[in-house]
Recover the amino acids of this structure.
């Protein structure tokens, strides 16, 4: 059996064969753009329940005023800007704890809302919830019997 490997997604080529999927292709292109980001800081994505998720980002060493979480145009931006690195006294013999600035971007689906963010033990936890619109929820249809 021959296996097919897809190395890249050529969205303009797919447009020739699919009509009405423009929004989905735009989402794929936007999401693919975030795949080339660095590995810093490390993070986890946890599914808590059917409609609840958490993103955990390692932010040890960042103060409260050095972190920012923002949602804009379907993307979640987590930013860290270390202001205390310039005020440290002394010469490091070894510096293994990274304190560099970062921006981590997560593409969110249309129905995802950020419910809150908190830091505990150096881990920034962002709580997300998927809301299902009324139009997409299952609807019971009443059956009437005629005599």
């Amino acid at each position: 059996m021959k296996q097919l490997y897809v190395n890249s997604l050529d969205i303009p080529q797919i447009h020739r064969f699919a009509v009405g999927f423009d929004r989905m292709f735009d989402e794929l292109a936007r999401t693919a753009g975030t795949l080339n980001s660095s590995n810093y800081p490390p993070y986890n994505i946890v599914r808590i329940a059917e409609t609840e998720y958490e993103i955990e980002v390692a932010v040890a060493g960042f103060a409260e005023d050095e972190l920012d979480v923002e949602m804009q145009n379907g993307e979640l931006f987590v930013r860290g800007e270390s202001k205390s690195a310039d005020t440290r006294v002394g010469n490091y013999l070894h510096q293994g704890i990274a304190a560099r600035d970062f921006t981590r971007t997560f593409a969110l689906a249309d129905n995802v809302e950020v419910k809150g963010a908190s830091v505990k033990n150096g881990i920034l936890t962002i709580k997300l919830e998927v809301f299902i619109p009324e139009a997409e929820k299952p609807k019971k249809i009443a059956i009437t019997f005629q005599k």
